[in-house]
Design brief:
Blueprint: H1 22-30, H2 32-40, E1 44-47, E2 52-55, H3 63-83, H4 101-107, E3 114-116, E4 119-121, E5 126-129, E6 132-135, H5 141-161, H6 167-183, H7 194-201
Helix pairs in contact: 5-6, 5-7
Length: about 200
Amino acid sequence: MYGCTTSSTVYIVRSVPQGSFLGPRLFILYTTDLADVTKNHGVTLHAFADDTQLYLHCRHDDMASTALQLERLLSDVGHWMSANRLKLNADKTKLLWAGSRHCCLTLGNRGPKLELGDDTIVPTNDVKVLGVTLSSDLTMDKHISNVCSAGFYRLRQLRRVRMSLDTESAATLVHAFITSRMDYCNVLLAGAPKATTDKLYSVF
């Protein structure tokens, strides 16, 4: 309604209202066939609300054939998405070849590229999965550096308003913005070298 004028009524017989609890369930049903596409290529699939991850194990000597296998899979995924009114966004597609540090040094932290039509997916040294940075050498150094950097940034921001806060409020903000982030997925740090994990304590 605008002023005294009322627009005509439009009846929506399809789709789901935004925020409906049916949304995630219907989306899962909508994308169920994607798991069958990846299974036919022998690739493991992890699907999230707005992200799909593909995993494939190979030996160092089989990387070229593995890249071809991924290209064929992504081609089929692209066709499936087009048929279901979705789009495979090559600009947001990342490729990570992960292995031992020796293997990464042999590759020069790189590996075979993926050719998707007119787009080329160049391997990257790290990717972010659910807020955790995973590096190609499977160490947590980059993740810890990112966490420490974010922690120091938040501390600098809190320092500006510290005089306006009582002790309890300041402690609450530190826990909300810093401590909780330090604790997030810290089980992944089990077995990490002490020199690496000590960097987290420098924030405090």
